[in-house]
Design a protein that fits this description.
- The protein has two domains: 3-48 and 171-216, no CATH class; 56-169, RlpA-like domain (Barwin-like endoglucanases, Beta Barrel).
- Helices cover 30% and strands 27% of the residues.
- The chain has six helices and twelve strands.
- The strands form three sheets. A six-stranded mixed barrel has the order 6-10-7-9-8-11.
- Helix 5 (194-204) packs across helix 6.
- The chain starts with a helix and ends with a helix.
């Protein structure tokens, strides 16, 4: 480990120690969800880490993960995926959870925030890319089971989508996120997790998630 890595690890350790010292008082009520705040600085906890990764091959095709243009867009077919083990790790060491609003993409940095539009029914959803894939041919995106439900293609299993990188929201997340936080800490403070942050973005941008939650709330009244 070189000097830079040692300093970086010390800074991360210091930030985490501040976070743990202030729990659970750092969780404050926001308009739609609760998020972490220390000295007016919003902090989001993640098990995973920032990763671009090296080139890799799937079905004979080489993919080269990289930084992309701020206005990156892509159209193609998406499917949804699940894991046999609920504790399976994603490509950036996050824990895969089929109920979270996440996705797997061939090249986008992890994490990245994307807006996905189901071109067959116009439903929209904001997701966080934290994995690599899809591993099936002629697919551009794998979406969590919950994401597929909200986008309305859980039964057919595949749909044509438009992917748009939300560059500004991605940069905001990277400025707020604390990586490599133990799962046990996040479980106790789930309202400070990346999943709740992504859900809050869906509420803010009034995606299909927003309208489905609004509809469910009205049913309960």
């Amino acid at each position: 480990m070189n000097l830079f890595q040692k300093i970086n690890m010390q800074l991360i350790g210091f930030a985490v120690s501040i976070l743990l010292y202030n729990l659970p008082s750092i969780c404050i009520a926001a308009q739609n969800n609760s998020i972490c705040q220390i000295n007016k600085q919003l902090l989001i906890m993640s098990e995973g880490h920032y990763k671009i990764g090296k080139p890799y091959k799937i079905n004979g095709k080489v993919y080269s993960p990289r930084q992309v243009a701020n206005n990156f867009q892509q159209v193609g077919y998406a499917s949804w995926y699940s894991c046999k083990n609920s504790n399976s790790k994603t490509a950036n060491s996050d824990t895969f959870n089929p109920s979270h609003l996440t996705a797997a993409h061939h090249i986008l940095p992890m994490p990245s925030i994307i807006k996905v539009t189901n071109l067959q029914n116009t439903r929209t959803l904001i997701l966080m890319v934290n994995d690599r894939g899809p591993f099936a041919k002629r697919r551009v995106l794998d979406i969590s089971k919950r994401g597929a439900e909200l986008l309305g293609f859980i039964r057919q299993g595949i749909t044509k989508v438009k992917i748009e990188l939300m560059h500004s929201e991605t940069q905001k997340l990277l400025n707020m996120i604390l990586f490599n936080i133990p799962k046990s800490i996040i479980a106790k403070n789930i309202l400070c997790s990346t999943d709740y942050y992504i859900k809050s973005l869906n509420m803010k941008h009034k995606t299909s998630y927003y309208y489905i939650m609004l509809k469910n709330k009205r049913k309960q009244q």
